[in-house]
């Protein structure tokens, strides 16, 4: 059901091309996954995402649990029917949001501050799970590994993530080790609950555990080996790209890659710049996600082959150029920078939509370019 097949390997790096089968279709890897936090990739229709090459989208367990609620989504036939997306879906566990939103701080570099550990009224972490307050109405909730599995099964995504604790980028060794051990225990509990729930479902779901361990070499290797031994359909790497220097990010990836299964997809969580995607693919990462393409779109920015541009800049006011003369996306073929600037300056939704479209398409093209390097004779 969830078989992974490697079709081609690079001769000069660890990059590879593969196929991961799911109940809602095959995912060709490497693959960038646009983020649809609340059951929608902001401003984008499912048909448009398909048109520009999106194969799988990511939705957020935490937000969907709070509103509209996983019970409602289940009654509506599951997340695929609810949002009219007939391709694969991945749901994260909500752990990152439980911790980061508990401090009202969504910046990755600061998302788990010392305040989190001191203010028991915001987030209370125990070995059993995490008690937190809703960002909507302040009501208290408890996420345990079992509860998270029940929520994710109700949502019905093809790939579901185990509940984990993501430590701060600069956590001391003691805390990073405690966090890792808690994540390991929770992964075992998630696996047990998932297997129990999966037995009674016609449409099966794949559980991915999440490697943690902070920025400590031995902890990262220990976590990679522990999660690999669970023998689940895929494996994820968490707790990176959360504010640490990029050289540290890739050092951690280089350390753990030799300890990961070669015949299962590897998912690096939370990366989405062109530079990061290239580095990840080169190291043998198969899947990655990020909110950046649509977030940049909402703020009037776009990826280009000459670097990120800010459409509000005065230089674009009379520009007849496209966002990127090397890009073949719908936006670059049909709209000038001057018009896009006008839309953003006027806070028109169309401007956000078109910039988001371009940014997602641009990242898909980055992946295609890297795949051609791996297999030059293939048609991507």
Structure description:
With 380 residues, the chain is α/β, with parallel strands linked by helices. It is 40% helix and 17% strand. The protein contains 15 helices and 17 strands. It has helices spanning 46-51, 61-66, 70-75, 79-83, 95-100, 114-118, 145-155, 173-199, 217-229, 246-256, 274-282, 292-298, 330-334, 337-345, 349-374; strands at residues 4-9, 16-22, 25-29, 31-34, 57-60, 89-92, 123-125, 130-133, 140-143, 159-161, 206-208, 210-211, 235-237, 266-268, 287-290, 301-302, 309-310. Strands 4-15-14-13-12 form a 5-stranded parallel β-sheet. It has a 4-stranded parallel β-sheet with strand order 5-6-10-11. A 3-stranded antiparallel β-sheet has the order 1-2-3, with no helix packed on it. A hairpin with a 6-residue loop joins strand 8 (130-133) and strand 9 (140-143). The two termini are 25 Å apart.
């Amino acid at each position: 059901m969830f078989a992974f097949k490697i079709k081609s390997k690079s001769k000069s790096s660890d990059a590879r091309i593969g196929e991961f089968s799911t109940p809602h279709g095959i995912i060709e890897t490497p693959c960038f996954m646009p983020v649809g936090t609340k059951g929608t990739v902001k401003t984008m229709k499912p048909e448009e995402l398909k048109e520009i090459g999106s194969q799988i989208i990511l939705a957020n367990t935490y937000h969907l649990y709070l509103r509209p609620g996983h019970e409602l989504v289940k009654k509506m036939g599951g997340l695929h029917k609810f949002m009219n997306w007939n391709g694969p879906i991945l749901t994260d566990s909500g752990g990152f949001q439980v911790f980061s939103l508990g401090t009202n701080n969504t910046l990755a570099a600061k998302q788990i501050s010392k305040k989190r550990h001191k203010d028991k009224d915001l987030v209370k972490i125990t070995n059993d799970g995490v008690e937190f307050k809703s960002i909507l109405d302040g009501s208290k909730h408890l996420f345990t590994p079992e509860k998270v599995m029940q929520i994710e099964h109700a949502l019905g995504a093809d790939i579901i993530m185990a509940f984990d604790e993501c430590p701060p980028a600069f956590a001391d060794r003691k805390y990073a080790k405690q966090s890792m051990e808690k994540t390991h225990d929770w992964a075992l509990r998630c696996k047990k609950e998932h297997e129990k729930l999966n037995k009674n479902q016609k449409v099966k779901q794949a559980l991915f555990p999440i490697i943690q361990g902070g920025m400590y070499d031995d902890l990262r290797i220990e976590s990679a080996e522990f999660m690999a031994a669970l023998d689940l359909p895929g494996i994820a790497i968490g707790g990176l790209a959360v504010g640490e220097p990029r050289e540290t990010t890739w050092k951690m990836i280089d350390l753990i890659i030799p300890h990961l299964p070669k015949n299962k997809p590897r998912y690096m969580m939370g990366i989405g710049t062109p530079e990061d995607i290239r580095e990840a693919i080169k190291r043998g990462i198969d899947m990655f996600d990020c909110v950046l393409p649509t977030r940049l779109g909402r703020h009037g920015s776009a990826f280009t082959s000459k670097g990120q541009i800010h459409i509000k800049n005065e230089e674009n006011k009379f520009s007849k150029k496209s966002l990127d003369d090397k890009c073949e996306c719908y936006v670059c073929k049909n709209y000038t920078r001057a018009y896009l600037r006008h839309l953003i300056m006027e806070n028109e939704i169309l401007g956000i939509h078109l910039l988001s479209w371009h940014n997602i398409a641009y990242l898909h093209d980055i992946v295609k370019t890297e795949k051609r390097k791996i297999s030059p004779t293939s048609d991507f």
